[in-house]
């Protein structure tokens, strides 16, 4: 319990607004709940959220100590009262999440609270599976990342062992991530590989595709398969053989078939024509094919997970929606 005496400058404020100012990391819905439960007392008695405080009032706050901390990037998760996660799979070591377009995966200079990692931290903290206040506590970590305006499956580790094993499996290419995208025009041939070299400009946060090797450029290979062609657009499935920054977006643009909605590599005129804001790209399917022991993650071997909904498929290729499995986990990989 912590006790506060209201001074002249705070007199006249509503109780709930004083709480928001005094405890900025305490979520507003949780503050309201604490007031209802009488864990916030004014002069020794329960109170209403809209009561006006007077100079000399004594407030007793029966609230967890962490909510009295000042806001920092490390405790941003405390301000999330209801974490929003679309969980495809969860066990004691791993989370598989469907990240929606528009959300960043890690906190940055523009967004510290509404990020995928912060929502994961809040979710596990509220489940009492993780707390940064416990000694030697492992912080949840992401095993892969996706651009803000790209949606799809993100793997998060809940334990150090889970992170170590999954990172090694990703490095050894013992899992397959498939993407869906909508491009302008039609690829010829309809199925094949895009092979080139990608150079990244760190200043402009943009990549450039080269046909030949050059200093600083890395090999980029994308296998693709056209699933449907309609109204001047193609629905394409992609398998990243390499995982370079903006690889799919840049390679298809270099091939003359940019993704619709792509403001960086696409056509602004075509994006307006199709009314698309944000690239039509989704990491929609993940298959685990372990060829070496996986320890605590062995239960994932041979399993395939797929997102339930891809907005641009419904919008531009509605007849393809039924052909995509609606379940979060599809048939085992070994039987496909």
Structural features, described:
With 336 residues, the chain is α+β, with helices and mostly antiparallel strands. It has 3 domains: 2-68, RNA-binding S4 domain (Structural Genomics Hypothetical 15.5 Kd Protein In mrcA-pckA Intergenic Region, Chain A), CATH 3.10.290.10; 73-171, Pseudouridine synthase (2-Layer Sandwich), CATH 3.30.2350; 175-335, Pseudouridine synthase. The chain has 7 helices and 15 strands. It has helices spanning 15-22, 28-36, 116-126, 160-171, 247-254, 268-274, 311-316, and strands spanning 2-5, 40-42, 45-46, 58-61, 87-90, 94-99, 141-142, 151-157, 175-184, 191-201, 206-210, 218-230, 233-240, 281-288, 304-306. The strands form 2 sheets. Strands 5, 6, 7, 8, 9, 10, 11, 12, 13, 14 and 15 form an 11-stranded mixed sheet that branches. The protein has a 4-stranded antiparallel sheet with strand order 1-4-2-3. A hairpin with a 2-residue loop joins strand 2 and strand 3. The radius of gyration is 25 Å and the shape is elongated.
Entry keywords:
single chain, Pseudouridine synthase, 336 residues, 11-stranded mixed sheet, 15 strands, 18% helix, elongated, alpha+beta, 7 helices, 3 domains, 4-stranded antiparallel sheet
